[in-house]
Automatic annotation (TrEMBL):
Stretches assigned to the M23ase beta-sheet core domain: 92-189
Transmembrane segments annotated in the record for this chain: 14-35
Pfam families: Peptidase_M23
Listed CDD domains: M23_peptidase (cd12797)
Annotated source species: Psychrobacter alimentarius
This protein's record includes keyword Cell cycle: no
Keywords, comma-separated and alphabetical: Membrane, Transmembrane, Transmembrane helix
Keyword tRNA-binding among record annotations: no
Alphabetical list of SUPFAM superfamilies matching this protein: Duplicated hybrid motif
InterPro entries according to UniProt: Cell_wall_metabolism_enzyme, Dup_hybrid_motif, M23ase_b-sheet_dom
Gene3D superfamilies according to UniProt: Glucose Permease (Domain IIA)
Coiled-coil positions: none
Record's protein name: Peptidase M23/M37
Length: 196
């Protein structure tokens, strides 16, 4: 006859089982709370990213601006063709200047995605909107920006900033430098603008 093995582990007591269940429940609730807080943010960021990419693809499939297709970004101001005029350091003017009182609201000439709201050496405070055909619309020498940020969608006529003299225009009469870049090259905006 062999001796019986009575070395079975003792059964957990009721209190230890309840404590184990309670700990698991607290951990599960904590995880649910974290997921509840994170998922809407992650979902919103994902939706925003997908929407921005869809808008970019949609814009690229459209035609770039054509002759007389763009409204004046400063509707009450006259237009003059200042393209190609001499500038400092042997440069030529790659846009047109539209003079207006300081603080005059600047309207986007096109629908598109804001790709830059910031500063550079020549333009000072600038806004860049990428519109149909991937054309870049460059607004420079701003006094201030409207309430816009990179990746925002704007429509033609939306306010994007205010006329000033920032950058290398400091001390000149306030004006907007408006430039258009198609396939990375500057093109004369004047023929593309609607003349009133």
């Amino acid at each position: 006859m062999q001796p019986t093995d009575n070395s079975k582990p003792p059964r957990p007591t009721l209190i230890s089982r309840m404590l184990s269940v309670l700990i698991k429940a607290v951990v599960l609730l904590a995880l649910l709370f974290v997921f509840d807080r994170l998922l809407p943010t992650i979902s919103q960021q994902t939706q925003s990213f997908v929407m921005a990419k869809w808008q970019q693809l949609s814009l690229l499939q459209q035609d770039p601006p054509t002759e007389n297709s763009l409204p004046n970004p400063l509707p009450e101001q006259g237009l003059a063709d200042t393209w190609g005029a001499a500038r400092s350091q042997g440069r030529t003017h790659e846009g047109i200047d539209i003079f207006a009182p300081r603080g005059t609201p600047i309207q986007s000439t096109t629908q598109g995605i804001v790709s830059k709201v910031g500063n550079n050496n020549l333009g000072g405070r600038v806004v860049v909107v990428v519109g149909p055909g991937g054309a870049g619309h460059y607004y420079a020498h701003l006094e201030d920006y409207a309430d816009i940020s990179p990746n925002d969608w704007v429509n033609a006529g939306d306010i994007i900033g205010y006329v000033g003299d920032s950058g290398n225009a400091k001390g000149t009469p306030p004006h907007l430098h408006y430039g258009i870049y198609i396939n990375g090259s500057a093109v004369n905006p004047y023929p593309l603008m609607q003349k009133e």
